[in-house]
Task: structure prediction
Amino acid sequence: MAERGARSALEITVRGVVQGVGFRPFVHRIATRCGLDGWVANTPGSVVVRVEGPRAAIARFRSLFRGEIPAAARVTRLLSRMVPPSGAAGFRILPSRTEGIALSTIPPDIATCPECAAELSDPKDRRHLYPFTNCTQCGPRFTIVSSLPYDRERTSMAAFPMCPACRAEYGDPLDRRFHAEPNACPACGPRLSVRGPDGTVLTTADPIGAASEALASGKVVAVRGMGGFQLAVDATRDDAVRALRERKGREEKPFAVMFPDIASARTAARLSGADEAILAGPEAPILLAPSRAGSPLARSVCMGLSDVGVLLPNSPLHRLLLGRAGRPLVMTSGNATDEPIAIGNTEALTRLRGIADLFLLHDREVVQRTDDSVVRRVGRATYPIRRARGFVPAPVLLPRVFPDVAGLGGDLKGAFCFVRNDAAFLSQHLGDLANPLAREFYEEAFRFFRTFLDSGLRAVCHDLHPAYFTTGFAERAGCGRRIGLQHHKAHVYSLLAETGFAGKAVAVAFDGTGYGEDGTVWGGEFFSVDGAEVTRAGHLARFPLPGGDAAVRAPWRTALSMLREVSGRGEAENAAERLFPGIPPGTVRLLLDALDRGLNVVPTSSAGRLFDAASAICGLCRHATFEGQAPMLLTGAAGKAPAGTYPFSFSTDRGMLAVHWNGMIGGMASDAMKRVPPGTISRRFHDTMAAAVLEAVSRISESTGARSVLLTGGVFQNAVLLAAVLRGLRRMRLVPLIHRRVPPNDGGISLGQAYYAAQRVAGGE
Ligand SMILES: [Zn+2]
Ligand SMILES: [Zn+2]
Result:
């Protein structure tokens, strides 16, 4: 007990990812070191610390506390205040108070920590080479939870009673494995096994050796990872990668590559210090980074795209496998294209039959289907592209407490979001809901979140698209009130939710397509934001989008429609002959006929489709085999040197600004016909788009007095455009706000929907 006399007491409340990451033992350690009395406890969604003792000791505690927070913790809010001393004696870890929102006590999965990695490679350690080593600082969390509250009995580790040695670690407050729920060792924990392509058990004492041998000979190996199965092949062998593409039905979409360590990752990607910190962080996401010249990867990995998706081993199993294989491995979701990732052994043996040559299995069940997350780096920090393992279910904290509501998301990148108190819980990425298995997955995940958030669901918010699965689901969700919200407004609200911004702003939502409020298809939108009000203030000039959503697959069709808008049918037909060789003139004429008669076309202001058309005009992508291919090829080609801009203009109709691209598209077509290199045209195009955005923002901000600018929508995944717009805004002394917690693409709109509905319900509307 600390010395009596002038005692003070300090209470600290910490929110964020602070449970299941060794926070309480850490506090116990430093409080004891400072000779302080008090306690630490988990409460729903936070850790509360109370220390009492001499003022100087408390000051020392404060500085140790800030300096030594566990690496796996992610503190999003920290509140400290002096309180009257209560006369506590000794320092204790109090039992958890888990009533309330149980889901908020589950941390996301955490990549192997340095201590566990050291044990793994230490021949004298009892966990030497043990693929399921973990501690309070690392290991599976969300992916093994079957019900709540989060403790071992309610995870897939319940099947593995701890041996005396593990139990002792688990029960010792000063041990790194104190209450490490998935704690395990070779004596008591999960084990590996190997099966052949037809499911026959292959007896081996060295499953990882068997898998790495298969990989070395170009075979496809299915690996049971943290959030589900992955398919691995040698990323340096073109034949192996092509075989995987063939079997998986994945034509050209790039694969992510896992490297044994950061040094080998550097051989394939240009990585900054900040990039390396993201890769080695507790989330261990796939990072999109520029490919390096002379990369050892087979060409069929990235299929000519300029960026490569890089990740490091996120579990001991992956560390051991990559270490043995000694080469980079393609590591892609264990599924046939468009299906959700397989998680069960039996499920994988069925669904991945014919794809995998070997199965590396284990007996720790994956409960929550969770893909690898994908991020970019923008500035010094993470910019999310796909939010799943490592991030889910950590909530996005909202500026205040709201009623229970949910946002149902969009269909292309399924994800929903529950608001509970002042926290927004997004589901993991659920895939393309056009797929029936993905829909099942959606409904199953929705039930899980709803139950474990104990949500009193007072409203659900859905997209305006009547044909969306999620719009139909709103009716079946079993909740009285349904609120519709326009797609791009939802993008804006999602950025408002994650930033807590509530003043005046201009918002730019550059996106694919979304159902508009006026019967047209929106996607290149400018909004005026005032507090919680979001009003459309402008858009890209409309053009007829042929064949609706089918246009995504055929960028040349969108390009032809835009060329026809610029210079009429005759000129467009001539241009098509030169710009789209290989498209039969009859096909071109048929489409022009349809456009002339307005058959099967919808007017759109979509920025995404404009980027598609630009890619086709440059000759980079006339047909796309996956979503985003055309703009990725366009951006990848963009030259570094500024090359001037194309003309663009504005008009205003009853206060609504329209951005006209005729001069730009005309200029691009004429450059392309003059054989100006695609890199130059692409550079000019990006700079023109950035200049047009900046000019539109400046006009709107002048009329509203807004000084902040929100950038959202899938098009802002484009690193070249984003960088140019950010530079311009700073030059104009405007304050840009971008996504840091949820993706700018449709994977993030459920947060915006939920935030909007929460405000409506809270306001008594
Ligand atoms: Zn660890
Ligand atoms: Zn054990």
About this structure: DSSP finds 22 helices and 29 strands in the chain. The pocket of zinc ion (ligand 2) is lined by residues 162-163, 165-166, 184-185, 187-189 (CB under 6 Å). The domain at 541-653+664-692 is CATH 1.10.357.160 (Tetracycline Repressor; domain 2).
